[in-house]
Design brief:
The chain is α+β, with helices and mostly antiparallel strands. The chain has two domains: 62 residues, no CATH class; 64 residues. The strands form three sheets. The protein has a three-stranded antiparallel sheet with strand order 1-5-4, with helices on one face. Strands 6-7-8 form a three-stranded antiparallel sheet. A hairpin with a 3-residue loop joins strand 7 and strand 8. Helix 1 packs parallel to helix 3 and helix 2 runs parallel beside helix 3.
Length: 141
């Protein structure tokens, strides 16, 4: 089954990498639930330490906690920003995995990530390629 969006753990990693939360197009919302690293589960009202990457809102006097998340569409849109710098992200399915080749024009593949889910594949690529490009002096955040 394909995931709809990043997990909270993946969202935290993208935020820590410097990805602007304004690029997130989804969110987790909870009230009186504990959020673990991967999903929203029941238990307590514990805070997961995700500020400032999370925010609060109210509805009918109840306070809700929102944690940003990125859909596959938002992740692919983010990856397209690299095209202007001469890099081409190519996502494609195989029989049992999704593969994302990150190609530098004229030089070939500089990063290849394969996972069972396209969201995981995109997140893995972003977490791998952004530090590599930072070392090259390219900042696309």
């Amino acid at each position: 089954m394909t995931k709809v969006c990043t997990t909270i753990k993946q969202s935290r990693k993208l935020f820590e990498l410097g990805i602007d939360i304004k690029t997130a197009d989804m969110y987790y919302m909870y009230r009186h639930w504990e959020i673990d690293e991967n999903t929203v589960g029941a238990q307590s009202d514990a805070h997961i330490g995700f500020d400032p990457n999370s925010y609060y809102g109210t509805d009918n006097g109840k306070t809700y906690h929102y944690v940003p998340a990125w859909s596959l569409s938002a992740l692919l849109k983010y990856l397209q920003k690299f095209r202007a710098q001469g890099y081409i992200p190519i996502l494609f399915p195989t029989e049992n995995k999704w593969i994302l080749n990150f190609v530098e024009r004229g030089h070939g593949t500089i990063c290849k990530v394969a996972c069972y889910d396209p969201v995981d594949t995109c997140v893995g690529t972003i977490l791998t390629i952004v530090p590599i490009l930072k070392l090259r002096g390219i900042n696309i955040l």
